[in-house]
């Protein structure tokens, strides 16, 4: 971070504001049906995970050209685009805002801080995604897509054009991105950059960014001389509910999904609290520590759990529905081989959670963050 005063914020869209980007290791691990895999099967091809992860954040035109070439497909890039785009439309309409995104957008709007969208997607695709989010059509009056500039990211063109439309000097803009392609573009535009990695296994590679956070819940506007948040309640933050199913054993939750796909996006990382329902038993209070860790060479999610009321023995191995309603804190952004003591649930976390869950704001299922 430097001393330049920030007067506008520019957001990337896919993987930054919306959960439209899922890393290929995630599909592979959970057996989820991926649209690219589905298309490649038609031509007797299989996905190359290394190539696809490196394509993350690439502009649509460059991406389609590269895919057709890399897999030696008997179609043109234009034909590929015509086939794959309608397949993605349904997914885009189902996409959700990532944790803390709506909180920040509303905060900037409230304090009249200019902000905009700058995406490597085409304008039509951006508008489809934006239209599916409540209020976003009105929120984003400035949007720049890849076809509106000479070159997409990592060229700075998109960000420079966005700054021009905002009427703000590029050096006074803060870019928020999830990919290395976008980070390089922001730095090339002489802007300051916050990285919110959508592929958590790569977050330790984002040193080019001025600041790295795991999710928007960790964003601190005051670091950029922007108006600070003032919405914490009892040392915690009310959040939009995060729901998932799981079973408990030996201090950890194992997520369970009906279709094998996780209900937790990669940016759900930190100490949260909420409620658990187990069959006909009373609703239990829970604190969870959610993080990604390297275990035996694999990068996997660990969910440490602590029940404030109720006995562990009573609920062991039973299916439970978890609803997280509050956020306490995050962790250091640098990856570690093992969970340290500082990153585990501590007594203060339990005390905060217990006090908060007695408040009406943490009973509400339409919380503001």
What does this structure look like?
With 369 residues, the protein is of the alpha/beta class. It has two domains: 228 residues, HAD superfamily/HAD-like (Rossmann fold), CATH 3.40.50; 126 residues, Riboflavin kinase-like (Elongation Factor Tu (Ef-tu), domain 3, Beta Barrel). Helix content is 28%, strand content 22%. The protein has twelve helices and twelve strands. The strands form two sheets. The protein has a six-stranded parallel beta sheet with strand order 3-2-1-4-5-6, with helices on both faces. β4, α10 and β5 form a beta-alpha-beta unit. α4 crosses α5. The radius of gyration is 21 Å and the shape is globular. The protein starts with 7 loop residues before the first strand and ends in a 13-residue tail after the last helix. About 4% of the residues have low confidence.
Sheet with the most strands, sense and barrel status: 6 strands, parallel
State the fourth-level CATH superfamily of the largest domain: HAD superfamily/HAD-like
Q: How many H/I helices?
A: 12
Task: Work out the number of β strands.
Answer: 12
Give the amount of beta strand, in percent. Answer: 15-25%
- The helix/strand class is alpha/beta
The CATH architecture of the largest domain is 3-Layer(aba) Sandwich
Head-to-tail CA distance between termini: 26 Å
| Order of SSEs | EHHHHHHEHHEHEHEEEEEEEHEH
Low-confidence stretches: 23-33, 335-339
Helix content range: 25-40%
What Rg is obtained from the alpha carbons, in whole angstroms? 21 Å
- Quaternary structure of the protein: single chain
* CATH fold node name of the largest domain: Rossmann fold
What's the pLDDT, averaged over the residues? 86
General shape? globular
Report strand order across the widest sheet: 3-2-1-4-5-6
Level-1 CATH class name of the largest domain: Alpha Beta
Structural domain count: 2
């Amino acid at each position: 971070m430097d001393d330049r005063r920030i007067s506008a914020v520019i957001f990337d869209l896919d993987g930054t504001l919306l959960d439209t980007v899922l890393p290929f290791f995630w599909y592979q691990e959970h057996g989820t049906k991926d649209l690219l895999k589905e298309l490649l099967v038609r031509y007797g091809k299989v996905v190359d995970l290394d190539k696809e992860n490196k394509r993350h954040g690439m502009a649509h035109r460059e991406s389609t050209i590269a895919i057709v070439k890399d897999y030696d497909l008997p179609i043109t890039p234009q034909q590929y685009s015509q086939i794959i785009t309608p397949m993605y439309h349904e997914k885009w309409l189902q996409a959700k805002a990532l944790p803390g995104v709506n909180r920040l957008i509303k905060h900037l709007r409230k304090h009249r801080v200019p902000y905009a969208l700058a995406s490597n997607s085409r304008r039509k695709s951006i508008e489809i995604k934006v239209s599916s989010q409540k209020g976003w059509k009105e929120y984003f009056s400035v949007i720049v897509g890849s076809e509106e500039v000479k070159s997409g990211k990592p060229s700075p063109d998109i960000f420079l054009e966005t700054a021009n439309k905002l009427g703000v000097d590029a050096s006074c803009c803060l870019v928020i991105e999830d990919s290395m392609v976008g980070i390089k573009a922001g730095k090339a535009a002489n802007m300051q950059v916050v990285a919110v990695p959508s592929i958590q296994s790569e977050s330790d590679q984002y040193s080019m960014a001025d600041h790295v956070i795991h999710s928007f819940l960790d964003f601190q506007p005051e670091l950029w001389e922007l108006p600070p948040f003032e919405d914490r309640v009892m040392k915690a933050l009310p959040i939009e509910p995060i729901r998932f199913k799981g079973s408990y054993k030996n201090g950890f939750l194992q997520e369970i999904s009906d279709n094998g796909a996780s209900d937790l996006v990669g940016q759900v990382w930190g100490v949260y609290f909420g409620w658990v329902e187990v069959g006909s038993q009373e609703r239990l209070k829970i604190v969870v520590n959610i993080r990604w860790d390297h275990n035996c060479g694999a990068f996997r999610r660990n969910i440490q759990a602590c029940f404030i009321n109720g006995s562990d023995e009573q609920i062991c191995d039973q299916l439970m529905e978890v609803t997280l309603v509050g956020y306490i804190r995050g962790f250091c952004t640098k990856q570690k081989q093992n969970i340290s003591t500082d990153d585990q649930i501590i007594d203060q976390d339990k005390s905060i959670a217990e006090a908060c869950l007695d408040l009406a704001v943490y009973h509400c299922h339409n919380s503001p963050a």
